[in-house]
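step=predict obj=ABC transporter permease subunit n=286
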Amino acid sequence: MQNRSLSFWLFLTPVILGLGIVVVIPFFYGLFYSFTDWNGISATAFIGLENYINLFQESEFLDSIWFTVKFALITVVLLNIMGLGLALLVTRNIKSSSLLRTVFFMPNLIGGLILGFIWQFIFISVFGDIAGITGIEGFNGWLSTTNTGFWGLVILTAWQMAGYIMIIYIAYLENIPKELIEAAKIDGASSFQRFKNITFPLVAPAFTVSMFLTLSMAFKIYDQNLSLTNGGPFNSTQMVAMEIVRTAFSDNDMAYAQAKAVIFFLIVAVIALTQVYYNKKREVEM
C-alpha cells in the first residue's frame, strides 16, 4: 500500500509542479501587480484599487465586455443546437456516418488564425463576387460594420467548434440503452416523444459539459477575432481578450491590463460555475 501511495505521488508530482509554475504562481503574481504601477519590468509604487476604479470608467473595456457577453450567449446556444443536431444525424444507421463525423470534426483541427484568414477571404472576396453577380447589396461590406462583423465571428466559431461539441454528444447518445428506444417504439411513441422523454434526459450531462466548454471558449476567444476583424471597425468588434492584450502590449500599461485580466477571470469563473451548478441541479430533477 505504501509503495502504491509513493508511486501515485511520484506520478502526480510533475503535474502539480507544472500547474503551480505555469498557472498558480503567475496568477498570484499578476494579482499582486494589478495593485501596482508595474510596467512589465518593475513595480515602483503600490497604488491600491486605482487600476480597478479606472477600468470600470473606461468605455472601451466595458463595450468589449458587452460585445463578448452577446457573442458568448449566441454562440453557446448555436453551438449546442448544432452539436446535438449533428450528433443525432451521425448516430443514425446511415452508411456515411463515419465519413460525416470526420468531415464535421475537421474544422476544429485548423488553427484559429488560419480560419480567421480563410473566412476573411470568404466574407470579403467571395461575398463581394456574389454581390456583383446577383446585385444583392447585403453581401457587400461584410466585416466593415459592427453588426456583420459580429455575425462573421459567430459563423466562424460555429463552423469551427460544432464538430467538437458533436463528439461530446455522440459519446452520450451511444450510451443510451437501445432497449429503451425499442420499447418506446413498440408503445407507439413518436420520434419527438422519444427524444423528449428518453434521449434528452439521458444526454443532460452532455449539456453541462458542452455548455461549460463553449462558455469558456466563447469568452476567451482571441486568435479568430484578431485574424478576422482585428477588432474593427474602430474597435467595435473587439472582444475582451484582445482589449486586454492591446492595453498591455500596445499601450504598454501592464498593471492596468493585469487588473482587467483579473476582472475578466472573475466574470468567466462566476458565469461558468453558475451554469455548472444549475445544470447539475437540473440533471438531478430530470
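step=describe
The chain is about 75% helix and 0% strand.
step=end
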